[in-house]
Specification:
single chain; mainly alpha
Length: about 200
């Protein structure tokens, strides 16, 4: 999994390789799918995948994204996105279905239009994709649980500045790759910040 993280970090500054904002569009499609089905904010495979895409975008922007949204907007993935993570066998199968679809997108793309993005994407094994999606989903769940328990109280981990102030600048290719613990903290901070913003709007 560390190799996948390093590959993502190196994509920062790369050209997208395609039009639009594919990662943003992918996450938005999944979130919209969850909303339409009353599952937004629930612990689902779709939430895990959406947060993983957002995490990649936070680190690498749209660098090397090509037209990867094609892999995620497939209507055949709707059922997979709606799968509850509490049903572990079904969730693992759904994760593999989503990750497999992305792999199937990148392999011919790499053959036809090789770039730093396609090299990074095809270097990530299917099982690693599944673990990354689950890993980010777990971090999201931890962050949301912590937010629910600490709402209205001073954040002892992030201090007076709150979660947003703890977000590190996106790393460049000259910095060492982040550790899994740092990635967990980063995504947890991102989620806590989003939760605080939602609470303030209510």
């Amino acid at each position: 999994m560390a190799q996948a993280v390093q590959a993502t970090v190196r994509l920062r500054g790369e050209a997208p390789g395609g039009p639009g904002q594919p990662r943003r569009e992918s996450a938005q499609h999944i979130d919209d799918t969850l909303r339409r089905n009353g599952a937004y904010g629930e612990p689902t495979v779709g939430r895990d995948v959406s947060e993983a895409i957002k995490g990649i975008r936070a680190v690498a922007g749209e660098g090397g994204s090509h037209s990867v949204q094609k892999a995620f907007i497939d209507p055949r993935l709707t059922e997979a996105y709606l799968t509850k993570t509490s049903d572990r066998p079904a969730a693992r199968a759904a994760h593999r279905m989503v990750a497999g679809g992305e792999t199937q997108y990148w392999e011919p793309e790499h053959s036809q239009r090789p770039s730093a993005g396609t090299r990074a994407a095809t270097s990530v094994h299917l099982d690693t994709r599944v673990r990354l999606q689950e890993f980010v989903g777990a971090a999201t769940g931890i962050a949301e649980s912590a937010h629910r328990h600490s709402a209205g109280e001073q954040d002892q981990f992030f201090g007076h500045g709150g979660a947003a102030s703890a977000l590190p600048p996106a790393p460049t290719h000259t910095q060492r790759p982040p550790t899994e613990a740092e990635i967990t903290a980063y995504w947890a901070a991102q989620q806590r910040s989003q939760q605080q913003q939602r609470s303030q709007r209510r």
